[in-house]
Amino acid sequence: MIYAKTGAKINIFIGDRRTGYFKESLFLHPDFKFRYEFPQGWRTANQVQGVVGISANQDAMIQLTLAEGSSHTEAANGFFSQQGVVATGRQSANVNGIPASWGKFSVATESGELRGLAYFYSYDSKIFQILAYGTAAGWSANEQAATNSTKSFAKLTDAKAL
Fold it and tell me: Of 125, 77, 78, which Cα lies nearest the Cα of 99?
């Protein structure tokens, strides 16, 4: 498993509905005013360290957490410069109107190679990190769903959800 550099553990993703809840595969966080769509059919959980989703075949995972750094670029640089992480296709641009940096990565582990995507969003004075990854064998079947999901981070504007 890849561990994100998240700094101090803060109970921001669990508790009452203000700190995040699911409507099917859509995760809404009223306090932080964001929404995030996990792939259909994935098992999801709102945990203390973040929000996670696991593919039906348990060969891919997405985790949404807070990241260290003063910008999405700094957080991305920190992640992609970790020992053992091989980065490709790094980019920065606005995604859904939110400044972001992302790229693909691979990393060798004791149980085999993992491949994935890492997205970092600067939003509302916080840096959000989304890691989507899976086994080398299973990644091709999950990559498109994970890509669509990592790009779904957006401002929560629904007055009823807020």
Answer: 125
